Amino acid sequence: xxxxxxxSCALGQSGFAATLQTAMQVEGLAVRVTTTDCMSGxxxxxxxxxxxxxxxxxxxGDLTADDLPDLLAFARHYAASPDGNLPDARVLxxxxxxxxxxxxx
Length: 105
Description:
By secondary structure, the protein is an alpha+beta fold. The protein is 27% helix and 22% strand.
């Protein structure tokens, strides 16, 4: 799984990608957290994308450091899903209202 944090947004500029990578490792998740310049989510900044080969990709926006527990929970569900689709959006927690896109794999 690759998680990409927008480096142009406040969250990315705060060093959140390193925090997220460390938290994912503590959770035992095989994740590579990267950053990229502007993910074009400027109307709902501080974006983060989750993707894996052959799986639906997700883009979240309006993120803050307080979303870390929900991002970890989402990562666990996403990793366990064979196609990236989640049968119940409630597992997204607060991310449910922060989902910007779900892109078919």
